[in-house]
Design goal:
Chain lengths: ~120, ~130
């Protein structure tokens, strides 16, 4: 069983551009501060699925260890601010996961299950 | 239903974008030494091969989603057979449930992806909320 741990990840300034290219999600809310502000956001925001990929990645060094992952997206993540991912393994083999940035929960009620 | 051909460089590009450093995702020799035919896709690469099947279902006027007011509320994936570069992944997507609560629209979609041998590789459940 994985130990209880905390991992921090800081998305760099250009991560949303790389993720847009890699994933094909070019929604301007992730790429253009001016556009993001015009629709009521503070600035360009992280892709939720990028944040989920961080939650997935920190579960194990083996990318194939993950059997399932479910998350709820809440707060909006922004580049250049540290994200803390907390993993708490439970008795039932389910790891409870959260991702928090500046006190803002980006991912809550995450549940990860690893292959044994 | 769409079929997505997993490219080796796309796996590398995706792994790089999410900060995945496992040699299985970058180094063909390492992947082969571990018993895989080619680079291994990180689990969250499921978004890449399933979205082309899901997009037309989300955007279907009959579904009734106003895309400009869409928020990603939740996501669930269950992984089965590994996906490696060279695989052809066929995904079926469907609208599972549509509900309205407190003025918000809740749309749950499902995806089911199989490889070229018909083996299940990933099941997804996507919750989208329309403000």
């Amino acid at each position: 069983m994985a130990e209880h741990r905390e991992v921090t990840v800081t998305p760099d300034r250009y991560v949303t551009y790389r993720y847009a290219g890699a994933s094909g999600d070019f929604n301007p809310i992730h790429l253009d501060d001016e556009f993001a502000r015009s629709v009521g956001l503070p600035s360009k925001i992280l892709h939720g699925l990028w944040t989920m990929a961080q939650v997935a990645r920190v579960q194990s060094d083996d990318p194939l260890a993950l059997k399932s992952l479910s998350v709820q997206f809440r707060g909006l993540g922004v580049p250049e601010q540290e994200i803390t991912i907390t993993c708490k393994p439970g008795e039932d083999g389910v790891v409870a996961v959260e991702a928090v940035q500046n006190g803002n929960k980006l991912v809550r009620r995450g549940k990860a299950v690893l292959r044994i | 239903m769409t079929t997505y051909l997993v490219g080796r460089e796309k796996v590398r590009e995706y792994a790089h974008a999410i900060g995945e450093t496992s040699p299985l995702c970058h180094d063909v020799e390492a992947a082969r030494a571990a018993g895989f035919a080619d680079l291994v896709a990180p689990p969250m690469f499921a978004c890449v091969y399933s979205w082309p099947a899901l997009a037309p279902v989300v955007l279907d006027p009959e579904t009734g989603v106003d895309f400009s007011r869409l928020v990603h509320g939740g996501q669930e994936f269950t992984w089965h057979e590994p996906v490696v570069a060279g695989d052809e992944i066929t995904t079926e997507a469907a609208l599972k449930e549509k509900a309205e609560r407190a003025g918000l629209g809740y749309f749950t979609f499902t995806t089911r992806s199989v490889n070229q041998r018909g083996e299940l590789v990933c099941e997804g459940e996507w919750l989208n909320i329309v403000r």
